[in-house]
Specification:
Layout: E1 4-9, E2 15-20, E3 29-35, E4 38-46, E5 59-65, H1 86-99, E6 111-119, H2 127-139, E7 150-157, E8 160-163, H3 167-170, E9 173-181, E10 186-196, H4 198-226, H5 241-260, H6 265-280, H7 285-314, E11 329-333, E12 341-347, E13 350-359, E14 365-368, E15 373-376, E16 378-383, H8 400-414, E17 426-435, H9 440-455, E18 464-473, E19 478-483, H10 487-492, E20 495-502, E21 505-513, H11 520-542, E22 558-565, H12 569-573, H13 578-587, E23 590-597, E24 603-611, H14 614-628, E25 636-645, E26 648-654, E27 657-662, E28 683-691, E29 698-701
Parallel strand pairs: 5-6, 16-17, 27-29
Antiparallel strand pairs: 1-2, 2-3, 3-4, 4-6, 7-8, 7-9, 9-10, 10-21, 11-12, 12-13, 13-17, 14-15, 18-19, 18-20, 20-21, 22-24, 23-24, 25-26, 25-28, 26-27, 28-29
Helix pairs in contact: 1-2, 1-8, 2-4, 5-6, 5-7, 8-9, 13-14
């Protein structure tokens, strides 16, 4: 066994170790990357040949976290890892977007990259190491790859940048971005920020790149030591020079004219498709099928060249705009009367219909991942149906793209949505893309801001977003930064750069660069142009609604909050949840209890009553207040007879609190039998005359509320025996607080989100 290890020294003194030759040796390449107690196993495999009629890079990336890595059992009936979580999908996308542009253009063999988390202690963040692990596995293989690359996380904590922070450190960061790069070029950026400036973001990218260069050099050393500097040969494309020359001669000028025509998306696509088919039919009939893929490849190159030259030479875009022009925008709020908040945001041929729904703590998203557990108060879901692009096909579940775009929009808005004590509601945004031709994720950000304000959620500031593009030519050194790009400009361009933020700074960004040698000067210009574009879009949005509504809409459920001492939580819940469930059933409300501590460290319960009918909510509140009310001597209560014994009756004066109404305290005259006056279930007004200081048992009196008869003489009472009489089997009564009967078992969680109807 030939085990080779390499070490990367981080600027803060920590180390990353790369090991190969020990695990998964039958893969084309495999490594174990270790930082602290966090370990990732990355393995890559590649098909020997490309499949027929494949003219793209069939790369598949899978990131998987093993529960055993953290010493945990998976949830669910099967007790094993299931389908990928959203987090695993997002990490897979981070790896994919960094690797994909670096495979050779004409290499089309299937490549599978698998990265597994095999050890973790919850200190170091594994996603920051995943890109490095995948690249190192490719480096020790013979798979053609123009790397290496590495990915690092950059956080700014107390004004200082930190590489690959721990989970704890990240809690105090105002900037959190992932950066992927080769030794020479930035490839990918994604992250969230708390309204930081464009200059700060650029500085963070530079800081990350300096660290990544170290990672790349170590991978080169590893590649050389393993003996994989020379990669496998391949031939996955066939060319016909005569057909290629004919295609350029026949199609280029006409492609240029179509691109310059200013037609809309579908008209332009139809014209390009017709020209493509027209040229194909110029070939001999017997050659058409054989050379169809070849011609498609040539035509795509011609289309791309025509569009790029038009922009670089004439400054004209596909829809006739200048480089910094934003498409027409129109917005509308309160479009859906049944939703808690709704908005339409349309920019050119991209449209989002977005809703906001408010819910209880029971509605919060539960997170149960290997290294992350808890609840998310604010969620955003993004849907991209096929009809949004005019495709005639069925929608088959949630795609990775939808998960990624939704996460970007969520990151953009999360900094302005109030959570915790500032907002008692769970907040869900759903963006349905109805039309798409460029940056539907940023349309979601804009529509989400509008819908939140329409709902009345007190966001700190509205957020807008924009997608930027780039057309560059290395030979002439010409370039053009494009604002608010179309779908074709994204497909045929060199950069897709999405930036979202408030008027005061950036909240989220995502950048994919498809060209080598992009200078920081170009990035700086792109960021400034994006800032101007964002502000223009924001100003258009604010013409529709400029601030959150003062009040929620009438059909939005309201929440009443009350803080109770921790000792009463059990009484409110009741045995097996019977009390809280009864309250909910009788009042048609939803009630949750969250246990915490006050400033003095004493246990308290935050009770949320959620409902639409105010009277019923008040009734639920009254019942809860009654449970937590402490009886006071001298107070008069309207109680209910719960049981009768020989010597009196037990009367429940407050929920869970009953006292003894002795037969002698029922009336001024002598009462022979309790049943002569009361039956179980009767209501009776009583006065609390005594609380036993030792037992907390309550003594009640009815006669204290009755007028004393004229000439009444108090009878002489026999002295009480020295030993107490038994309570005839009524050990559960005798007065006092019965809150100790609250049973917290029976499947109730710590946050006591109880009793769903």
């Amino acid at each position: 066994m030939n085990v080779i290890k390499k070490t990367i020294q981080l600027s803060d003194g920590r180390t990353i170790e790369i090991e190969t030759g020990k695990l998964a040796k039958q893969a084309d390449g495999s490594v174990v990357v270790k930082m602290g107690k966090t370990m990732l196993l990355a393995a890559v495999t590649c098909a020997k040949e490309a499949k027929e009629d494949v003219d793209f890079m069939p790369l598949q990336v899978e990131y998987k976290e093993k529960y055993a890595a953290a010493g945990r059992y998976p949830g669910g009936f099967m007790k094993r890892e299931g389908r990928p979580s959203d987090y695993e999908i997002l990490v897979s996308r981070l790896i994919d977007r960094a690797l994909r542009p670096l495979f050779p253009e004409k290499f089309h063999a299937e490549v599978f990259v698998t990265v597994n988390l095999i050890s973790a202690d919850g200190v170091d963040m594994p996603d920051a190491l995943a890109g490095l692990a995948a690249s190192a596995a490719l480096a020790v293989s013979d798979i053609p790859f123009d790397g290496p690359i590495s990915e690092v996380r950059v956080a700014r904590i107390d004004g200082k940048f930190c590489i690959n922070p721990t989970f704890e450190q990240l809690n105090n960061a105002d900037m959190d971005i992932m950066v992927a790069a080769t030794y020479e070029n930035i490839m990918m950026v994604e992250g969230e920020m708390k309204e930081v400036s464009e200059a700060d973001m650029l500085e963070a990218i530079k800081f990350a790149h300096a660290e990544i260069k170290k990672h790349c050099l170590v991978q080169k050393e590893l590649e050389k030591e393993v003996g994989k500097e020379i990669k496998r040969e391949y031939c996955h494309e066939t060319d016909d020079e005569e057909v290629e020359k004919a295609a350029w001669k026949y199609c280029y000028d006409r492609c240029y004219a179509i691109a310059k025509s200013g037609s809309d998306k579908h008209a332009r696509t139809d014209q390009f498709d017709a020209l493509h088919q027209e040229f194909l039919e110029t070939l001999p009939e017997e050659e058409r099928e054989e050379k169809a893929i070849m011609v498609a490849r040539y035509f795509n190159a011609i289309e791309k060249k025509a569009m790029r030259r038009m922009i670089l030479d004439e400054g004209i875009r596909l829809d006739g705009r200048k480089s910094n022009d934003i498409r027409p925008i129109w917005c509308e709020v309160d479009y859906l009367p049944g939703a808690h908040g709704s908005a339409i945001f349309t920019r050119g041929e991209t449209q989002s219909l977005t809703t906001v729904t408010l819910g209880t703590k029971d509605d919060m998203k539960e997170r149960d991942e290997v290294l992350s557990r808890g609840t998310d108060q604010f969620v955003l879901h993004y849907n991209f149906p096929p009809f949004s692009t005019g495709e005639a096909k069925a929608s088959r579940g949630l795609s990775r793209r939808e998960v990624g775009h939704g996460n970007l929009a969520w990151r953009a808005l999360k900094e302005v949505v109030p959570v915790g004590e500032d907002n008692p509601y769970a907040v869900r945004i759903v963006s349905d893309i109805l039309e798409s031709n460029g940056s539907s994720s940023m349309a979601t950000v804009c529509a989400g801001s509008l819908a939140l304000m329409d709902c009345g959620v007190k966001i700190s500031k509205p957020v807008s977003g924009i997608a930027m593009g780039l057309i560059s030519d290395s030979e002439s050194s010409k370039y053009a930064v494009l604002s608010d790009i179309l779908g074709d400009e994204d497909h045929l361009g060199d950069m897709d750069f999405k930036v979202a933020g408030t008027k005061d700074g950036i909240t989220a960004t995502q950048m994919d660069i498809k060209v080598d040698g992009l200078s920081y000067e170009v990035l700086e210009k792109a960021l400034e142009q994006a800032r101007q574009g964002r502000n223009h879009i924001l100003n258009e949005m604010l013409k529709t609604i400029s601030e959150p509504r003062a009040e929620y809409k009438p059909h939005v459920p309201r929440i009443i909050q009350i803080v109770v001492p921790g000792e009463f939580i059990g009484a409110i819940i009741g045995k097996g949840g019977e009390v809280i469930q009864d309250i909910q059933k009788q009042t048609e409300t939803s009630i949750t209890i969250t246990e915490s501590k006050d400033e003095k460290g004493e246990p308290i319960g935050m009770v949320d009553i959620f409902g639409i009918d105010k009277e019923k909510m008040d009734a639920a509140l009254a019942r809860i207040k009654a449970i937590v009310t402490v009886p006071e001597v001298g107070e008069v209560y309207k109680g209910k007879v719960v049981s009768i014994v020989e010597f009196g009756a037990f009367v429940e004066i407050l929920p869970g609190k009953d006292g003894l109404l002795h037969i002698s305290e029922m009336d001024w005259g002598k009462t022979e039998k309790v049943e002569d006056l009361f039956q179980v279930g009767d209501e009776v007004e009583v006065k609390l005359i005594e609380i036993d200081p030792k037992t907390n048992k309550l003594r009640l009196s009815r006669r204290a509320l009755l007028e004393k008869p004229e000439g009444y003489v108090e009878p002489v009472r026999r002295p009480r025996p020295s030993t107490p009489r038994p309570h005839s089997g009524h050990s559960g009564h005798g007065g006092g607080d019965r809150s100790d009967r609250g049973d917290r078992k029976g499947g109730f969680r710590k946050d006591f989100n109880k009793g769903k109807k």
